[in-house]
Amino acid sequence: MSEKSSVARYIRAMNPELDRKIGELRIPFLCLIEGPNDSGKSVLTQQYVYGALKCGFKTLYITTESGIRGLLKSMDEISLSVTEYYLKGLLQIYELHVKDLEWDEALSSRFLELILNTIKLREYFDLYVIDSLTYLVTRAKEDDILNFFTEARNIIEEKNKSIIITAHPYAFNEEMLVRMRSISDVHFILQVKEIGDRIVKLLQVPKLKGAVKQTSITLSFDVDPAFGIKVLPFSRARA
Questions:
Q1: CA-based diameter of the chain, in Å?
Q2: What is d(CA 8, CA 155) in angstroms, rounded to the nearest whole number?
Q3: Which residue among 16, 133, 156, 191 has the highest number of C-beta atoms inside a 10 angstrom radius?
Q4: What residues in the chain have per-residue pLDDT under 70?
Q5: Per-residue DSSP letter, 211
Q6: In terms of Cα–Cα distance, which of 218, 215, 212, 180 is closest to 200?
Q7: Where do runs of H (alpha helix) occur along 25-95?
Q8: How crowded is residue 98: how many other Cβ atoms within 10 Å of its Cβ?
């Protein structure tokens, strides 16, 4: 763990509205972010990665959603530029090219093991991000998924690390989804809703075991290129 993160005990989003409504996330933690396509999973993840880097936490970002250049560009476009951290080695981005593979149980098992080994061999990072786990678990055996989350839990508790995982809820059956939620310290659920004549994203925070604030939270937000995540007034969320 970096010198600075050994002192800091929280990760903030570095977004005033999110930090005020949700609070800081106490490390170490396992955070599960679930939601359908275009619900804001990656944007929310990137917001917390930006905050983690600003708080002094070295971050390893494993992406199945985009390439290195695409990720850096997309974050820069919403005023979450992390290129400087990437060039300094404080942020590393690993691409997993998984979309065109023919998935089966054996391939899923190998990829899940690969991610765990990657994390274990790079203990000098403080925060690990897996965005997204969906492709890797859709065809996986339940035992392999449970082992993955159990090993992740062990890394968090034994090594004092934090992990953020994004996934589509359809990737798990209902029983497995309940288990994943129970294993997690922080749980975010994202949805896409039509409010009046516009489409907005809804964020529910049913679990904040590792956070300062312990209240049930539901908020709506847009993604503003000049600001990043922009939380909408509650009255508009209920319109």
A1: 49
A2: 19
A3: 133
A4: 1-8, 210-215, 234-239
A5: B
A6: 218
A7: 41-54, 68-77, 83-87
A8: 17
0.85 cut: is pTM over it?
yes
Element (H, E) at 110: helix 105-120
Compute how many other C-beta atoms are within 10 angstroms of the C-beta atom of residue 234.
Answer: 12
CB distance 11 to 56 below 8 Å: no
Nearest by Cα to 193 from 201, 181, 182: 201
Query: Could you tell me whether strands 10-11 and 25-26 are parallel, antiparallel, or unpaired per DSSP bridges?
Result: antiparallel
What domains does the chain contain, in order, with CATH numbers? 10-237 (3.40.50.300)
Q: Rounded to the nearest 10 degrees, how much is the dihedral formed by the CA atoms of 177, 166, 60, 8?
A: -80
**Which residue, chain included where needed, has tokens 């965005």?**
131
Residue 59: Cβ within 10 Å count: 24
- pLDDT, tens digit (0-9, with 9 covering 90-100), for 65-83: 889 999 999 999 999 999 9
Contact 186, 211 (CB under 8 A): yes
In order, the DSSP letters of 124-164 are T-SEEEEE--HHHHTT--HHHHHHHHHHHHHHHHHH--EEE
The region that residue 82 occupies, defined by phi over 0 for left and psi between -120 and 50 for alpha, beta otherwise, is: alpha
